[in-house]
Amino acid sequence: MQTRAIPCVLVVEGNPTLRKLYRSELEASGYRVFTASSGEEALDWFETAAQPDAMVLDIQLGRIDGIQVMRHVLQQHPNLPVMLHSTYTHYRGNLACWCADAFVDKSMPGALARRLREVLAARGRSAPSRESALFRPGSRGREHGRIRGFGECSR
């Protein structure tokens, strides 16, 4: 029996409470989740760690916003699935957001994991199996900070 690797997701969210909430939601759906709290930290991630299978970005991040992060990362990794996640739905009409694979409204509980599964499927990438969603590894994802062992992603 062949096992599928657990997809790794980088969640970039400035609000620590929401960051924990999204981590819990995605881990409960079977994803391995790593987080960054700012645009700068997200860009640093791609310099110091392996590429995740997908990235979820808040738009309002501070000095470097999610749209800027998305543009920079997609220049280096054009095949990376990117989802924008914001309460500011007026960004949907912003042409700069159109290169994202999806835009998810933060006010929709449970929508993040469901939409991420759809994005990965549309890109021909595997989403976590039902079995992996039930598996709880002892060493769960940690906050970003020169994380060792990220190379375990399904690349």
Structure notes:
This protein is of the alpha/beta class. It has a single domain, classed as Rossmann fold, CATH 3.40.50. Helix content is 33%, strand content 15%. It has helices at residues 16-28, 39-48, 66-76, 111-122, 130-134, and strands at 8-12, 32-36, 54-58, 82-86, 102-105. The chain has a five-stranded parallel sheet with strand order 2-1-3-4-5, with helices on both faces. α2 (39-48) packs parallel to α3. The longest helix has 13 residues, at 16-28. It is globular, with a radius of gyration of 14 Å.
What is the rounded distance between the termini?
19 Å
Backbone structural class = alpha/beta
Helix content: 25-40%
CATH architecture: 3-Layer(aba) Sandwich
Q: Looking at CATH, which topology would you report?
A: Rossmann fold
- How much strand? 15-25%
* N-to-C series of helices and strands: EHEHEHEEHH
Secondary structure: elements and pairs:
Blueprint: E1 8-12, H1 16-28, E2 32-36, H2 39-48, E3 54-58, H3 66-76, E4 82-86, E5 102-105, H4 111-122, H5 130-134
Helix pairs in contact: 2-3
